[in-house]
Amino acid sequence: MSRRLLLRAAVSIAAVAVFAAAATADSPIAEDNRVALYHYDVRDDLSIYFGNSDIIIEDIRNALKRRQKDITIVYDSQSDNMADIDELIADLMEYALSETDKPDEGDYLRYQMGGYDLDYSYEKDGDAYSYTVVITPDYYSDSEQEKEVSQAADKVVEGFAFDENTTDLEKVRAVYDFVYKNVDYDIIHKKNEGYHLKSTAYGALIYKHALCQGFSVLMYRLLRQSGIECRIVTGTVMIDGAEEFHAWNIVNIDGKFYDLDAAWCKQLETEDYFLKCDAELEDHIKDKEFLSEDFLEKYPMSEESYS
């Protein structure tokens, strides 16, 4: 937390402040009359929330896609909101990283960031407060690298030559085969904590070396561009008797989701982790959020592996 005046150059997002204690059905809306693509049920139990939250979330998401260094939110308030800003921004960021079905949003953004720093300050004039909130994301790739990824991904998907007769299974198989043949497991940088490209689509697609997260992000990008619903899931696996973080994909075929771990298939030279049910992935333990009732209702896992 910072109470100093922030002078960083960034495109500002104008927020329309609404006070939770006085919120009504005719709360203020975005002054620029833009209509957001998605609506989010933002919590209103804090001392402050924004009547144009949908627009703010969309602006944050677009700034993340541009790899904008600093994302600045400015708003005026009638009270001290410092105690609630961390929670407020955490919620806005969570919504900005939520799924939209677009290949360069959702999990594609979420798993190519190492979190964010947050600075906020205010200037007080009588009973009025003018707030400046600055979000500084820790990106794993930059805007130029993402342009390369987009161009390369477009070329790859175009090369698949999918048409209206291509089945979902055929699409999944084509994407998997491409990643398996063209990406190697990045053993050299595995323990280099400062080298983040190993966890990106850029590392996998352009450098052709990545760890599990990079494999998963590239699979996500190519599958989404091919019209296949998928997610990235995280958890742990046992390697040499030790528990390690791991990431892989779940993919939708005919309304059921299957586990697909391209990184382990490549590393172990097997297809034992291609379109499996959870019961047959005993060495993969998913994080609790991916086992929740809400998640499984939205992404129902098949009880049997695909055959």
Q: How would you describe this structure to a colleague?
A:
This protein has two domains: 12-139, no CATH class; 143-298, C8orf32 fold. The protein starts with 11 loop residues before the first strand and ends in a 9-residue tail after the last helix. The longest helix has 18 residues, at 143-160. Residues 1-11 and 19-31 have low confidence and may be disordered. It is of the alpha+beta class and 307 residues long. The protein is elongated, with a radius of gyration of 21 Å. 36% of the residues are buried. It has nine helices and 13 strands.
At the first level of CATH, what is the class of the largest domain? Alpha Beta
**Spans where pLDDT lies below 50 across 5 or more residues:** 1-11, 19-31
Provide the helix percentage. 25-40%
Task: Enumerate how many helices there are, as a single number.
Answer: 9
* Structure classification: alpha+beta
The beta-strand count equals 13
**What is the 3D form?**
elongated
Please tell me the total number of domains: 2
Radius of gyration: 21 Å
- At CATH level 3, the topology of the largest domain is C8orf32 fold
